[in-house]
Amino acid sequence: MSTHRTRRARAAALLATATTLAAALTACGSDDDEGGGGGGDADSITVWIVEDLPDRVAATQAIVDQFTAESGIEVELTPVAEDQFNQILTSNAAAGDLPDVMGAIPLGALRTLSANELLDTDAVADVLDSLGSDTLSESSLELTSDDGTALGVPSEAWVQLLVYRKDLFDAAGLAVPETYDDVLAAAEALDSDEVAGFVGANVAGDAFTAQTFEEIGLGNGCEMVDDEGEVTFDSDECVEAMDFYGQLITDYSVEGAQDVDTTRATYFAGQAAMIIWSSFILDELAGLRNDAAPTCPECGDDPAFLAKNSGVVTAIQGPSGEPATFGEVTSWTIPAEAASDSAKEFVEYMMTDGYEPWIAIAPEGKIPVRAGNEAGGTEYAEAWAGMDVGVDTKAPLSDFYGPEVIDALTSGTETLSRWALPQGQGDLLGAIQGEQPIANAVNEVANGTSPEDAVASAAEAIRAAADSL
User: Fold this and answer.
1) What pTM was computed for the model?
2) For domain 158-325+417-468, is the CATH number 3.40.30.10?
């Protein structure tokens, strides 16, 4: 069966099984006289945002109100929790009651919309033409496209980071850890009874472990699949990447199971020289969040000690690859049969006049992929660096991190990559989320399995998942 027919069959099954849920959940969409589900009144649209924290919804509503005041277009804003998105999408699609615009859509959800033929890609293309595709990072455009067709308008990203103790590196005369060799040399030099050379995730079945290794693998040319959709996780490049990560977590890390919480706690205690985490760590590292505060000996007198003494690397290059950055891109998109003209006007507003206040809602996780309003412009990137971050205390990242860190974060959006998505195999990513074969492979290596055997086992599980699609 062709890919197109497979997608159509999957879409039909998805919508058919949702019918019984439709009545309960259609309230999350719009009424027919409010512009949704087929483009009724052009002066009224409905907008979903995959964001449900009350303060963020309130901040978004303020932007929406300003748009209405300037355009005369009424907007019904509906927050949707990310873990409920697929269910609500399914039921509302079955009822023919989708919104006119969707925002903060992660890459996986964007592929779900595309696979079920629920997008107005012509309208998306019109917005990109109006904004100028050359004002957006090439990697964000690639990740939000399918075979050259734009599925959404990429808005912002968070990126995976290698965070390192700059003070310890400088004292030891070590190079910035930008390559496998740099990282291994630093881990060996700095590892001691008091400080681990490196700390990283190793828990089986954990998405954070898989994401951590994806950052490592991407920089060595390790891909889950090739351009033909064939599973390639047992390639030499992936074995080499797994061997590298295995050395870090077995020779220079702390003992036992390590996950998103324990790795952060170890680095925050001043007991690790390097950690792989997302950009969401930055405000916490600066002591701006009480429930995740640094606890290092120096942090009592200066809660921002670690932030001031940490550097970041967004892309680690292996001997067989090019620098690449794991991250998430969120987008605005326009569903099929939307009130297209008003929907396009709204999305353009959120990427221009509304862009800075939108990013300011959570700058640590909303790094702009549109640096400026014109090709080569930097006004949005510069504004981002001065925006307040934090939870219990608010302050700009630039108060704690030097220009080299800020530049690394904004330039990291230029090298964003992901497994399977550029090869058109987004469905495969979803199919392995339950079993997490790559996280399992990392755990096996941490417990003594050879990189070759662990990678081969993961590749076999990925092929089984691919065959089930």
Assistant:
1) 0.85
2) no
